[in-house]
Amino acid sequence: MRFHHSARLSAISASNARRRPTLKNSHQPSTTLKPLAFIGRRTIFIQTEETPNTNALKFLPNQSILPPGLESSFIEYLNPKSTLKPPYTSLLASKLMSNSDITSVFYGTNFITVTKSPDADWMYIKPEIFSLITEALTSGAPIVNVSKKNSQELNDSDVGKDSLSHDQNDSEVVGMIKELLELRIRPAIQEDGGDIDFKGFQDGQVLLKLRGACRTCDSSTVTLKNGIEAMLMHYIEEVKGVKQVLDEEEEVALREFARFEEKLHQQKDSEDKALGKTPTASSTSGLSGPETS
């Protein structure tokens, strides 16, 4: 059942609603097309695209990646253990993440985004990635093996039903937010090698989680504020802002970074005092982890 929001929804679902969103500034992906292997008469091509995240590359084989019938639009692996954990195990992701320079593997419907550590060089990683993807595709085995899910696995898994799909319990505003995210936002995020999760709507704030290449991108805050937030607030008056939902590890990293900055500042103040200079106000006094609702 679809939402019917009369005049309000028409502003979102107008004839131009399915145009490619313009969330990026001037990013134009560079593309390399490489024939890598043969299955009988069929040639496997793996196309690569750069993303706004310099540490993430998007690989597009001429085959589907996600298994048919999967409720989610993506699967993301953030550590080697997760690649072998039901209900969505992947031998390819496991092999990719056995390389210590690779920090995450993201599967979209027809693409794979690989993220590396900042100090690693693509020159040395890309050949291995091409080789492993080719091996997986030529084997004929599914990229993702879906096992029967029990309740514990569903709770442990970070992948489930598509968060932008319609739920009969959604309010009118939530339905409009989901539809706008699906039609205008998600295509641009997927083009950049990622995806977006809707985590809720509370006190006028839309709670979102960025995935894939967008998760660790330096411009993710700009994307959220200048792109997604501006568009949602323009079409839906109930929306007052957008907040990014972070994993526990990401929140810990932010807190550690804040403590590190404070320590550096205190050290500088001590040095300034020894030199007879006036200590400056703490630059981290207002720095804290992300707001939670």
UniProtKB/TrEMBL annotation:
Signal peptide: none annotated. Residues 264-275 have a biased composition (Basic and acidic residues). SMART domains: Nfu_N. One of its GO terms (molecular function) is iron-sulfur cluster binding. Residues 279-293 have a biased composition (Polar residues). Residues 46-140 form the Scaffold protein Nfu/NifU N-terminal domain. Residues 1-30, 264-293 are annotated as: Disordered. GO terms for biological process: iron-sulfur cluster assembly. It comes from the Eukaryota. SUPFAM superfamilies: Fe-S cluster assembly (FSCA) domain-like, Hypothetical protein SAV1430. InterPro entries: FSCA_dom_sf, Nfu/NifU_N, Nfu/NifU_N_sf, NFU1-like, NIF_FeS_clus_asmbl_NifU_C. One of its GO terms (cellular component) is mitochondrion. Belongs to the NifU family. This is NifU-like protein. It comes from Golovinomyces cichoracearum. The lineage of its organism: Eukaryota, Fungi, Dikarya, Ascomycota, Pezizomycotina.
